[in-house]
Design a protein that fits this description.
Blueprint lengths: L10 H8 L10 H27 L11 H17 L1 H12 L1 H21 L2 H28 L9 H29 L2 H22 L19 H20 L8 H22 L5 H24 L5 H8 L4 E2 L2 E2 L8 H20 L6 H17 L14 H29 L5 H23 L8 H20 L1 H8 L4
Antiparallel strand pairs: 1-2
Helix pairs in contact: 2-3, 2-6, 2-7, 2-8, 3-6, 3-10, 3-16, 4-5, 4-6, 4-16, 5-6, 5-8, 6-16, 7-8, 7-13, 7-15, 10-16, 11-14, 11-15, 11-16, 11-17, 11-18, 13-15, 14-15, 14-17, 15-16
């Protein structure tokens, strides 16, 4: 898909623009919507109980890991998920095409959840999280890229379509923690992990029947790897696995430093990715300028996700120790807190979709949306301050609901817009890999959120929430000041 549309649209593109069968969007969106919804069900259902499984005592069915180390592991795992989008995107762009990588990744994810459900102790965590990380990474970048193939570059429905796609993500994200949390509370952690595996199996089955109706462009390999280089790539892959295993066995990579290692790896990967794309002779001057325009959005996204992803680290710990979860004499399971944000996404995604569709070309530009999103995220952290330093059950449930509502507004201003921007700013030969760059910003922010969790002190919360909130607001102000030069670099893309 070219970023600049041809003068005369091919008939297939014209037909796609007339197809409004799925809530005003192309019907093919329903198939990607479905598999992503079930993948998010399994992903967030598992992640909703993961931190608790790691730090709950053995007597309570957990592994008894120190809370700080457990939170760091969750952050590092989340960062590894998004880091693996690089591998998935590379395979899509060079070997298999986006749609095939999406399909095979769904199979790997299901295997990972089965491992978590059936294998006991650290063995299940290690095997399961590695498989889920690689599978989710492959599915994330490619699902977004496949959605991008459903629209022409100037289709006014594009941002609205991505917002609808985001609704599917959050339907799964809402139901996952609710149901796995119930099973974990009633029957144990492994039952919850088993339900996550079942959800992914349902998504894979549904997608298997619908994938044939996706456009041929979704299976296109934009920059094929020469066959003669396959053995070299395979050798590099095997060598990488050997090195990682050796580092783990020698104690260089440990649970307590995993987040820092992931942060370093993501930074190196991001620098390398930007360098490869910007130095490529296969992109035009306009495409190169657009990649430079993406750079400040990347940095802003890192700051945003380093706060937002603390829902799965600091906010989970806060909910377990500070939040009054009593509902008419019944104590709400801790994982249910993670379903509050998806509820607001479900309620508000349609509102944002309607707003962007109504405004059309008059809607705020992408840099403005990013700036507002990261600033609002900072405000959300400042809202913790009135409740800082309270005792057990001191924070009303309504308060955390309100704070997560602000989380949601910030997310809708930045996340679906970022996915759309990545596809619009992508050079023709780096379509899926540009989406992977956006996910690298999520990866870096998520890994940082795990490391930041080690600084969280329940006995002295004000400096933590105040500092991070103010940094995020300042980042938003700086991007607003730089909107005009960023738009100039984006060369007509808004």
């Amino acid at each position: 898909m070219r970023n600049v549309p041809p003068v005369d649209l091919p008939s297939s593109d014209a037909a796609a623009e007339r197809d409004t069968r799925f809530f005003g969007q192309p019907f093919a969106l329903a198939h990607v919507f479905g598999v992503e919804m079930w993948e998010r069900f399994s992903f967030y259902g598992m992640q909703g109980i993961l931190l608790l499984y790691l730090y709950f005592s053995v007597a309570d069915g957990g592994l008894g890991i120190d809370k700080t180390v457990a939170a760091s592991i969750v952050g590092a795992y989340g960062g590894a998920v998004y880091l693996s989008t690089v591998l998935g995107a590379w395979v899509a762009d060079r070997i298999l095409g986006a749609e095939r990588v999406l399909f095979f990744s769904a199979i790997v994810i299901m295997a990972g959840h089965i491992a978590l459900a059936l294998l006991p102790g650290f063995a299940g965590v290690t095997v399961g999280l590695i498989l889920v990380a690689f599978g989710s990474g492959g599915l994330k970048a490619t699902a977004t890229s496949v959605v991008g193939t459903l629209y022409t570059a100037d289709d006014a429905r594009r941002d609205a379509g991505f917002s609808l796609f985001y609704l599917g993500i959050n339907l799964g994200a809402f139901a996952g923690p609710i149901l796995t949390g119930l099973l974990q509370s009633a029957l144990g952690f492994h039952w919850g992990f088993g339900l996550a595996a079942l959800g992914m199996a349902l998504g894979l089955t549904q997608y298997s029947f619908g994938r044939r109706s996706l456009p041929a462009e979704s299976r296109h390999v934009p920059n094929p790897l020469p066959r003669g280089r396959y053995p070299l790539v395979a050798g590099i892959g095997v060598a990488a696995v050997v090195v990682v295993v050796a580092l783990v066995l020698t104690g260089v990579v440990r649970a307590d430093n995993l987040a820092l290692i992931v942060i370093g790896a993501v930074i190196l990967a991001a620098i390398a990715y930007f360098a490869v794309i910007l130095l490529s002779r296969q992109i035009t001057a306009t495409e190169r300028s657009r990649v430079w325009g993406f750079l400040p959005l990347f940095v802003t996204s890192v700051v945003f996700w380093s706060l937002y992803q603390q829902q799965f680290t600091v906010v989970t710990l806060y909910s377990a120790e500070r939040l009054n979860r009593n509902l008419f004499g019944w104590e709400m399971p801790i994982p249910w807190v993670q379903s509050i944000n998806p509820v607001f996404i479900i309620l508000l995604a349609g509102v944002f979709t309607a707003i962007w569709s109504k405004l059309g070309s008059r809607q705020p530009s992408t840099p403005v949306k990013f700036a507002v999103g990261v600033a609002v995220m900072g405000v959300a952290f400042l809202l913790f301050l009135p409740f800082a330093g309270g005792g057990e059950n001191s924070t009303p449930l309504l308060a955390i609901v309100g704070i997560l509502l602000v989380f949601t507004v910030a997310e809708l201003m930045l996340s679906p817009v970022g996915l759309s921007a990545a596809t619009k700013l992508a050079p023709e030969r780096f379509q899926t890999q540009m989406v992977a760059l956006f996910f690298l910003s999520v990866s870096l922010g998520t890994a940082i959120s795990g490391q930041l969790a080690t600084l969280y002190d329940p006995t002295n919360e004000v400096p933590y929430f105040a500092t991070l909130g103010l940094i995020s607001i300042v980042m938003g102000v700086l991007l607003l000041v730089c909107v005009k030069p960023v738009l100039a670099l984006m060369k007509g893309v808004r």
